[in-house]
Specification:
Elements lengths: L5 H23 L1 H14 L7 H15 L2 H14 L10
Helix pairs in contact: 1-2, 3-4
Length: about 90
């Protein structure tokens, strides 16, 4: 059973709000969003820099810009991939 905690509520709220904003951007600038997702996919693909380090760099950028969505999504991806054993929890 999944317990709802204040962190989970905040997390869900952030995802909902960011999802709403992404849908709005997609509706108003579909070509721009298409290009953004293509860029994100290419930037995070395996290459000269391993994905593990790309996720850490993206996480660092999220912390620097204080983007809650970026911090959460990159932490989730890194944890899911089990590329990084211990990550700080976003505040």
């Amino acid at each position: 059973m999944h317990r709802i905690t204040p962190r989970t509520r905040r997390s869900t709220h952030v995802r909902h709000e960011e999802s709403r904003q992404l849908k709005l951007l997609d509706a108003n600038a579909p070509e721009g969003m298409k290009a953004f997702w293509a860029f994100d996919k290419a930037a995070m693909a395996e290459g000269a820099i391993p994905v593990k380090y790309k996720e850490l760099i993206a996480l660092g950028v999220g912390f620097t810009t204080q983007c809650r969505y970026c911090i959460e999504i990159r932490t989730e991806r890194a944890s899911r991939e089990r590329r990084i054993r211990s990550l700080p929890k976003p505040s």
